[in-house]
Amino acid sequence: MNPFENKPWLDAYAPGVPHEISLPTGSLVDMIEDAVRRFRSKPALEFFGKSMTYGELGAEIGRAAEGLRRLGVKKGDRVALVLPNCPEHVVAFYAALRLGAVVVEHNPLYTARELRHQFEDHGARVVIAWDKVTDTVAGFPADLPLDAIVSVDITKSMPLSTRLALRLPVKKARTSRSALSSGTVTRGATTWSQLVSQGTLRKRHPRPDVHDLALLQYTSGTTGTPKGAQLSHFNLRSNAEQGRAWVPGLREGAEVFYGVLPLFHAYGMTLCLTFAMSMGARLVLFPKFDVDLVLSAFAKHPATFLPAVPPIYDALEREAERRKIDLSGIRYSISGAMSLPVSIVERWEESTGGLLVEGYGMTETSPVAVGNPIGPTRRPGTVGVPFPSTEIRVVDPENPSVDREPGEAGELLLRGPQVFSGYWNRPTDTAAVLDSDNWLRTGDIVEVSDDGFITVVDRVKELIVTGGFNVSPSEVEATLISHPDVREAAVVGLPLPSGGEQVAAAVVLKPGAVFDEIGLRDFCRHGLTAYKVPKRITVVDDLPRSLIGKVMRREVREAMLKKGA
């Protein structure tokens, strides 16, 4: 019997938080159109000081949807987005959904190899990409054909004064301009302005159903092999409703959310693309996290709600303190994706006067499933309690039919409306994590108190969490082993004081090879995104192995920690 069946954590909920949410009956398209109707004159998006109202956002979505329709996008087709945070990202997301298509999010900093692996898997034929990466996408081989590439120059969404400043003939302007745009359009690509210049989509065009597939979000899951998590309109809208329910003090049409988390990541996607939009918030977008940009924006429209990760809170608090900038407008802050040190909570809450609470989830849960209450019952050092309409079990990881009692360590299982339906075209992988009763195996070892507060104590999976992103050790090891001087490699995550982990590697060199740590890192950068490149590499004579010959990464990690590697 499940000892947590009666949900002992409900007493810890903040006042006004319901035990269950009203399950959505409409799609994300219905959600955004409702927001456009209710908040038409309110600011929806802001980018480098230039704003767009909800009415303007709705009109742009209609034009982009018509442009995609003319490119041949139909219900069920995958539309790939390879974009940083920008207004076009938000518009493209909802425009594709309006046609009944499935959005596939990608990190625009991925290498050609990383992107090609995902495109081979999902088969999207239409891509909306940052102009800095359209050449990479256009360079895919002939066996990976694309019907259309839409090129986005994000500087076009900036105020005219900012765009003019970027054209100044000085080094700083040239550097900034180069970081934001390639300045060219890939041959054969459609520009964003061309996409949205062909009228608006007819209202009678078929609409998606609430249970239709909305998003493929790639994750390394619990095994390390990148897979497309299938998230429906129902999953994503349910999670947005759970988030809204969790913070009853939020004011519709009056909050200012800061989009410092990447929208292509599940965390940023839900907190900003769906949650913020559902309640008529002003979403201030940043193409990447930059302390100067964020604090400059704060002077104009201070954030009231800031979803982020521990290193961002740490950096903002320290720099604001140094510059004597008042952060007191931030009432609510939600941290996720990595462990949140109590010291950061204390400093942040002292600086802002607001609350900073930790949550927990995974891509397969859209992504949030657990959170600390927004109020005095919160418990720093834990990830909190299950969200409304969410159930948990704690089981023996070797035999998930055996439940663990409160206080006993075991694998966390989750069930709720935000839990995904499986991995794209991977029934075996799906069956390994999702049972017939829709219980999801998280791969995380937790301890749960009598009153339902969850503490993550270990991971069954060996993924590395750095900067809020999952890194597959196997992928990094394969890159290292492809170097002519490396015979074997083991990649692990080493804990950082600010939370999260640092990618580190132990390598065995081939006979006669000379160790060149800088050269190895440079080699990795040709095939891996920057955050996956090992920050530290050490040489060992051999790697510890199990009786069947499998490298024991846990022992590698312990050895590196002892040596201070």
TrEMBL record:
<dbReference type="InterPro" id="IPR050237">
    <property type="entry name" value="ATP-dep_AMP-bd_enzyme"/>
</dbReference>
<dbReference type="InterPro" id="IPR045851">
    <property type="entry name" value="AMP-bd_C_sf"/>
</dbReference>
<protein>
    <submittedName>
        <fullName>Long-chain fatty acid--CoA ligase</fullName>
        <ecNumber>6.2.1.3</ecNumber>
    </submittedName>
</protein>
<feature type="domain" description="AMP-dependent synthetase/ligase">
    <location>
        <begin position="33"/>
        <end position="424"/>
    </location>
</feature>
<feature type="domain" description="AMP-binding enzyme C-terminal">
    <location>
        <begin position="475"/>
        <end position="550"/>
    </location>
</feature>
<dbReference type="InterPro" id="IPR000873">
    <property type="entry name" value="AMP-dep_synth/lig_dom"/>
</dbReference>
<dbReference type="InterPro" id="IPR020845">
    <property type="entry name" value="AMP-binding_CS"/>
</dbReference>
<dbReference type="Pfam" id="PF00501">
    <property type="entry name" value="AMP-binding"/>
</dbReference>
<dbReference type="InterPro" id="IPR025110">
    <property type="entry name" value="AMP-bd_C"/>
</dbReference>
<dbReference type="GO" id="GO:0004467">
    <property type="term" value="F:long-chain fatty acid-CoA ligase activity"/>
</dbReference>
<dbReference type="Pfam" id="PF13193">
    <property type="entry name" value="AMP-binding_C"/>
</dbReference>
<keyword id="KW-0436">Ligase</keyword>
<dbReference type="InterPro" id="IPR042099">
    <property type="entry name" value="ANL_N_sf"/>
</dbReference>
